[in-house]
Each structure stands twice: as C-alpha cells, then as structure tokens.
C-alpha cells in the first residue's frame, strides 16, 4: 500500500494511517481504495478487535485532493465527475467505516477539513489533539454542499443550528470546542493523542467485539424507529446476544468477581 499504512498490533488494534503528509493526507482514488482494502483485511482478521484511524504528519485529512481532478466514464460535466467519484469511492468508504462490525477509533492530529471531517466522524469514538480543528470548506470556498456524511453525522451530534453556521461560514471549530459541543469524544494534549487513542482502542479490542458491533447497529436504528420498534429491536438483539457464549462468560465472571475472558 502506497497511500496508507496498515499496522496490526499485538493488542488487537489495527492502525490505519493516511500517509500523504505532503498534501495533508488529502484523499485521492488510490487512498480511498487502500483504506477500504485495509478495512476488509481488519474485518476478516480474527486477531483484530478494533481499528484506529489517524493521519501521518501535521494533519489528519484535508478532504478531497482537488489536484487529481474528477474524471468519470462519459462524464459530460465536472459535476458528473464529482458525483461519480462520490459514488465509487468516497461514499462506499464512509459507509464501510460507519458500518464496520468492530469498533473504530479516530485520532485527529491537526486539521480535518471538508471530507476529512466526515472521515473522522464516521468512526465510533473520536479523539483530537488540542491543536486540531474541524473546518467545512465546501460552501464558502467551493460553492458545494458538505459531503462524506457530514450532513448526516454533524446535525445528529451538535444540532442543526451549529451545523448550519459552520457549513455556511467555513469557520474553524477547535478541538476543545468540538469536545465541549459533543462532536467528538475527547480533546487531549498533542503529545498524548496516540497514547490515549491507542489505550482506548486496545480496551475495546480486548472486549466482546460482536457485542460492540450490535451496539452500533441498535444505536443507528434508533433514529428511524419509534419507541416500540426500538424496544423490539433491543429484545431480539438481546435474545441473540444472550445465546452467545460471551454472555454466559460475563455472568460467570461477574459472580466470581473477576475480569471476563471473551471470545471473538
């Protein structure tokens, strides 16, 4: 892989590092394909219990690499090229991160701009360095709308009023403010970012991976379900989870006052 690195740790964490530091890890088609390939490898590896996504150098991700252009078969306008790139690259990657069956932790080091914000927010738990910031350049700089799932994730996390203001102004949102507003999980000192993100990811990797995947599914479903439907989903999920050996192990460990030994 040339655009990313994939490092599988002994603690069960697979680290995906965007590795185009000279362009602030902006996303081109090759990078998108490599991230998706790394996700498939991590999904199928029984020794991987969680994924950590970060960026090399001084930035997390500056969004799409505009210098590569937007080409598509039979595209008659640049807009067709943009839409094609989203259909075959950006959108599948965001879905695969958001729907990944294992926990995904993002460590935002430096700027997350444009689609880089969506990439970060597609993760389950987001840490950011104090020097990091989140900025929406689509509207004020490019006359576009936010993409890579930003219009889905951000309103659900911080509300419509803040999302609209950020999208239209293009103002930078500091990591500290992002944490205060609930856009991300935690803002930490720059020199502690990877240590804290890794410790959290390792804790998740040591846990019941399948249960964490189901937690993601039931939480996501709550946006479309009414209360009755959500309660039914919880019931049926608990039925399936209760039949898994990990539940019996958890109860046994609780009664014996010891840490559970879950299987993946």
Helical run tally: 11
Average pLDDT, rounded to a whole number, is: 95
- The topology string of helices and strands comes to EEHEEHEEHEEHHHEHEHHHH
Low-confidence stretches: none
Give the spatial strand order of the biggest sheet: 1-2-3-5-7-10
What number of structural domains do the residues give? Answer: 2
Radius of gyration: 19 Å
Termini distance?
Answer: 27 Å
> Would you report the number of β strands?
10
Describe, in short, the structure shown.
Helix 5 crosses helix 6 and helix 9 packs antiparallel against helix 10. The strands form two sheets. A six-stranded mixed sheet has the order 1-2-3-5-7-10, with helices on both faces. Strands 4-6-8-9 form a four-stranded mixed sheet. It is of the alpha/beta class.
Q: Could you describe the 3D structure shown?
A:
There is one protein chain. The chain has 264 residues and is of the alpha/beta class. The protein folds into 2 domains: 4-205, Alpha-Beta Complex (2-enoyl-CoA Hydratase, Chain A, domain 1); 209-256, Lyase 2-enoyl-coa Hydratase, Chain  A, domain 2, CATH 1.10.12. Helices cover 49% and strands 16% of the residues. It has 11 helices and 10 strands. The chain has helices spanning 29-44, 78-98, 115-121, 138-142, 150-158, 160-169, 175-181, 193-205, 209-221, 227-242, 245-256; strands at residues 4-8, 13-18, 50-55, 59-61, 104-108, 111-113, 125-129, 133-135, 173-174, 186-188. The strands form 2 sheets. It has a 6-stranded mixed beta sheet, with helices on both faces. β2, α1 (29-44) and β3 (50-55) form a beta-alpha-beta unit. α1 runs parallel beside α2, α5 (150-158) packs across α6 (160-169) and α9 packs antiparallel against α10 (227-242). The protein starts with a strand and ends in an 8-residue tail after the last helix.
């Amino acid at each position: 892989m040339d655009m990313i690195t994939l490092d599988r740790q002994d603690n069960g964490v697979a680290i995906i590092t965007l590795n185009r530091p000279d362009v602030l890890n902006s996303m081109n088609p090759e990078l998108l394909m490599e991230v998706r390939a790394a996700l498939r490898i991590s999904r199928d590896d029984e020794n991987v219990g969680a994924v950590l996504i970060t960026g090399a150098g001084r930035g997390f991700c500056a969004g799409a690499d505009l210098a590569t252009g937007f080409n598509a078969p039979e595209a008659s306008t640049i807009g067709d090229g943009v839409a094609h790139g989203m259909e075959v690259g950006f959108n599948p990657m965001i879905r695969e991160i958001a729907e990944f069956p294992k926990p995904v932790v993002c460590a935002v080091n430096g700027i997350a701009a444009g689609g880089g914000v969506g990439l970060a927010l597609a993760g389950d738990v987001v840490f950011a360095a104090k020097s990091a910031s989140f900025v929406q350049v689509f509207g004020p700089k490019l006359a576009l709308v936010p993409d890579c799932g930003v219009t889905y994730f951000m309103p659900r996390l911080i509300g419509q009023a803040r999302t609209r203001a950020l999208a239209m102004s293009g103002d930078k949102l500091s990591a500290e403010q992002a944490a205060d507003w609930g856009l991300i999980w935690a803002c930490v000192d720059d020199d502690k970012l990877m240590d804290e993100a890794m410790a959290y990811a390792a804790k998740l990797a040591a846990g019941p991976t399948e249960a964490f995947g189901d937690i993601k599914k039931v939480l996501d479903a709550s946006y479309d379900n009414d209360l009755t439907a959500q309660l039914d989903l919880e019931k049926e999920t608990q039925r399936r989870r209760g039949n898994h050996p990990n539940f019996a192990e958890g109860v046994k460990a609780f009664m014996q006052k010891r840490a559970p030994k879950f299987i993946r």
